[in-house]
Amino acid sequence: MSLDDLQRRFARAMHDPEEASRLFGEHARGASAYANNALFNRADALAEAYPIVRQLVGDEFFGGMARAHAKLTPSHSGDLNRYGAAFADFIAQFPPAQELPYLADCARLDWLCHLAYYAEDENNFSFEALAAVPPEQQAGLCLQLARAVGLLRSRWPVASLWRAHQPLEHDAANAFPSPDQGGELALAWRDGRNRVQVRRLLPAEFAFLDACRLGLPLAEALERALDEDLEFDFGVSLQRWVNDQVIVDFNLDAPR
Amino acid sequence: MSPTLPLAAGLGLRLPHIREVLARQPDVAWFEVHPENYFGGGANLAALTAVREHYPLSLHGVGMGLGSASPLDRGHLMQFRQLIDRLAPASVSEHLSWNRTPEECYNDLLPLPYSEAALELMVARVGEAQDVLGRRLLIENLSAYVSYAEDAIPEGEFLAELSRRSGCGLLLDLNNLYVNEHNLGRSTQMALAALPRDAIGEIHVAGFEERDDGLWLDSHGTPVREAVWALLAQALMRFGPVPVLLERDNNLPSLDELLSELGRAKALLQEVSST
Question: pTM above 0.90?
């Protein structure tokens, strides 16, 4: 038997006692230990990546939902921190979770935060370099978001729900929101002290950053922002997003 | 000449302890981490980089699946390489295991048959990984819960031959030998006798748990058993002073508890160094 065949049979034997007996003989009982490891390693990875969902539904419900997803959804990387990208879509159609219609969007925000936590480090934005761009080229430059940045448009107040579940932030200013209070535009990113943050965005801010994410030139990003709000203050916004390490670079050519 | 670990006792460093280690800087000769937890960037990597300023590091990979019949994940190898370039670890190691089919990755350390075909694949894969990583690897013997009809080479000889053909060093996990003897009836003493003295670059000790049906699980979730400490004393007599790691991954106790347990490894190393 080739190694390729043997490993495929091993994979089947994890869940099939008869195949395990054929492949491993007297030691077949060990196969279930591997099935158990695979399932719980994935479920544990989901629990790490989806802390708000876990708080919203409790550990027991979360564990059942995570294992149900893990049984159906293979991992593709030796790095378990990359496992779980499809969990929000699973939650959206998981019948026992239907009582919490905002849960899937909370999961989407959890995942953006998870990606932000592990995203590659970035260099600091250079205002000197920006100032050196000739005026005739300014409209065409593209601002570049940090790889840690995620944007989410939701019909639920996901950013407020996220903040209400942060330790030490559950005060009057971050009171638990009613899920029915309306939709929010959320920005997830990692700040200069490596802390993952979530903030509500105004429609113009969201439109601007979304345009940057799409690699659109500055002139078009501004146009989209001003379409939402004629008062959009580009200078102030840029300064803040640079300070927060939301915008980390720019380029004068096609986006990366 | 590759850097090497101090001939002293090191401790597995897991994320919940990393800030305390930075604050207290305990008397530990070196720390071991799983590189996969530090892929990418951010807070984990920043903390580990700070740890590296005070301690030698061992990067002990758990995700490469070197013995998979499917090709190695080059992206994974490159992430590992970036970490090596950044942290200049004293040691880089992986396992004698596989983890993926073309359809799925199992995120586990799955056992290979001890066959000539598996040996040839491992020799090629260790060579490939060593080329990409730019470092000599230590390869660790596995705990296994199953064995194969294809097993033709005794475990110790398989490891010795892998080291001889690929140029890799060996990471001897004594708890794994002990667990395998119980689960699979393999002789720990035969394995120890077959291992070449100069290939052993590091020794691991850890704890295991008993499943209800009598299978022993290499969970790294309990203190090291007396029998495994005895094996350590014996192994140090045979191999001389070697870096020894206390591993603990689950049911993580306080850092102080681990430091106290590490004292046993320090004492055993002290004994063998002074004779």
Answer: yes
Q: DSSP 3-state assignment of A39? A: helix
CB–CB contact B110 A195 (8 Å):
no
Rounded distance, CA B217 to CA B10, Å?
A: 23
- In this prediction, residue A256 carries a pLDDT of 45
The sign of the CA dihedral B1, B2, B3, B6 is negative
State how far Cα A250 lies from the chain centre: 23
**Complex ipTM value:** 0.92
**pLDDT tens sequence across A122-162:** 999 999 999 999 999 999 999 999 999 999 999 999 999 99
How many other CB atoms are found less than 10 A from the CB of residue A81?
Answer: 19
Residue of B nearest to A76 (CA): B105
| pLDDT at residue A167, rounded to an integer | 81
| Residues B147 and B184: beta-carbon distance below 8 Å | yes
Residue that has been written with the tokens 């870096």 in this structure? B243
Q: A3, A39, A115, A117: best mutation site toward chain B, by most B Cβ within 10 Å? A: A3
Structure tokens at B172: 């001897």
Residue in B with minimal Cα distance to A4: B69
> In angstroms, rounded to a whole number, what is the distance separating the alpha carbons of residues A96 and A65?
9
Structure tokens at A192: 């200069």
